[in-house]
């Protein structure tokens, strides 16, 4: 088996969000050569892009994986399909959205995948949950994520919400 890499995946939903996020966490734990290590708290957030839609629930998970980034992406897209994600409207409502934020220090630009995630440094609903579980995390080209978080001008996060540990992972203190 190839060496494991630390990767971070953002999870969001605004259609039956609690149910779909719990299902996505369960499905993430079934991915081959991948172990779910930690998850952030859940956050209630304003929509990004199209504001006239329901608020989202968002969180970030850390995984250790031996999968290549492209293969990990394929697995997350399969989970989105199983949860009936429809890509009809960019930034529109969704049952589930799984975004690969970081895969080690990989910098990658492919038609289907850009690493680090191109919006990571602009979106507090990605940065704050990621920093909650990995406070020393770095963007491979822009530096410490803590400094990037402090520079975000538009805040989507409304509040951190208590969520039972239904996924077998402890919620951060």
UniProtKB/TrEMBL annotation:
Keyword Kinase (UniProt): yes
Any GO MF annotation of the entry: kinase activity
EC number assigned by the record: 2.7.6.3
Residue span(s) of domain 7,8-dihydro-6-hydroxymethylpterin-pyrophosphokinase: 90-101
Entry keyword Cell cycle: no
UniProt entry keywords in alphabetical sequence: ATP-binding, Folate biosynthesis, Kinase, Nucleotide-binding, Transferase
GO BP term, example: folic acid biosynthetic process
Cross-referenced InterPro entries: Hppk (IPR000550), Hppk_sf (IPR035907)
Pathway of action: Cofactor biosynthesis; tetrahydrofolate biosynthesis; 2-amino-4-hydroxy-6-hydroxymethyl-7,8-dihydropteridine diphosphate from 7,8-dihydroneopterin triphosphate: step 4/4
Residues in the signal sequence: none
Catalytic class of the enzyme: transferase
Protein family membership: Belongs to the HPPK family.
Functional summary from the UniProt entry: Catalyzes the transfer of pyrophosphate from adenosine triphosphate (ATP) to 6-hydroxymethyl-7,8-dihydropterin, an enzymatic step in folate biosynthesis pathway.
Protein name: 2-amino-4-hydroxy-6-hydroxymethyldihydropteridine pyrophosphokinase
